[in-house]
Design goal:
The chain is mainly beta and 125 residues long. It has one domain (5-124): Lipocalin. The chain has one helix and ten strands. It has a ten-stranded antiparallel sheet with strand order 4-3-2-1-10-9-8-7-6-5. A hairpin with a 2-residue loop joins strand 2 and strand 3. The chain is globular, with a radius of gyration of 14 Å. The chain starts with a strand and ends with a strand.
Amino acid sequence: MAFTGKYELESQDNYVEFLEVIGLLNAKTDHKVVTEVLQDGKNFTWTQTLPNWTWSNKFTVGQECELETMTGAKFKSPVTMEGDKIAIQFPQYHFTAEIIEDKLVMNCITPGEKGVTFKRISKRI
């Protein structure tokens, strides 16, 4: 599956609930997040941009990679493919991303009884 492209937020579910669970409610924004993905085989650069904020990670599918959370904390995690989905275990949630009908669909799932599934759909621009 080819992920390369630039995508703009189209819709999202459970955004505020997700930020609340991971302790980042103060990061809530009404701006449309732009996600840019550069893919070269199994190597990815994944960048999300808002006015005055950029968050970027480089990783290779099939390897343990050093990544960064939205707050800048570094951690290591294996990056895998689950079918056509990229999967990464972040410290506070499980992240997956896939392309469905030329849209980037990302899910962040927090664990536990009060787990939240945050779903973001972005259209190619």
